[in-house]
Specification:
Layout (H helix, E strand, L loop, with lengths): L7 H9 L14 E2 L2 E2 L5 H15 L2 H24 L8 H7 L18 H6 L14 H19 L2 H20 L1
Helix pairs in contact: 3-6, 6-7
């Protein structure tokens, strides 16, 4: 049997509530780095809703992320503030690596997932014996350089953050389309 709800509220009332499944209501107004998130855009709203629910209910991962964040977020946030970046930029480390020194399939490394060439351009020492991309504090300093450059290029922090994942050229190409 397939249930077809007329509205999302009907679905929550008829399907989720009897099973004691908890959901979160997204606010109508939300800001990232002091900039309004377009919550009226159905695609933006749906993607955010998915990320909130997936990460909230992935309990073991969420618990360890909260534990790691108490150690690292204050230090990273302090550097962001010293460099004049919005505190919200700290979430890039959570999105990119879950505050772990991991290596991506594209060989991006560390909390900030910095590629080798980008790391060298940002002043990190990377050679056979040393890789400062793994050093959370030095990598944070390098990431602030990148983010400030991206802010200058794109004019807002939302686009600077977006370029962090796809590169400045990648974002510029998408903005042209």
């Amino acid at each position: 049997m397939v249930y077809h709800a007329s509205t999302p509220d009907e679905y929550v009332h008829d399907v989720l509530a009897p099973q004691h499944i908890k959901t979160f209501d997204l606010p109508d107004t939300l800001f990232f780095a002091g900039e309004r998130v377009p919550m009226e855009d159905a695609d933006v709203r749906e993607r955010l809703d998915r990320e909130i629910h997936v990460n909230t209910f992935f309990h073991s991962s969420t618990i360890f992320l909260i534990k790691r964040s108490s150690r690292w977020l204050p230090q990273i946030t302090e550097i962001l503030q010293e460099e004049g970046l919005p505190d919200d930029m700290v979430y890039i480390t959570i999105i990119e690596s879950g505050l772990q020194n991991v290596v991506s399939p594209s060989q991006a490394v560390g909390f900030w997932q910095i590629l080798k060439g980008t790391g060298k351009e940002l002043g990190l020492e990377i050679n056979r014996e040393v890789d400062e991309r793994y050093h959370p504090i030095k990598a944070t300093r390098a990431a602030t350089v990148y983010l400030k450059e991206a802010y200058e290029k794109f004019g807002n922090w939302t686009n600077a953050a977006a370029s962090y994942n796809i590169g400045k050229k990648g974002l510029a190409d998408r903005l042209e389309d």
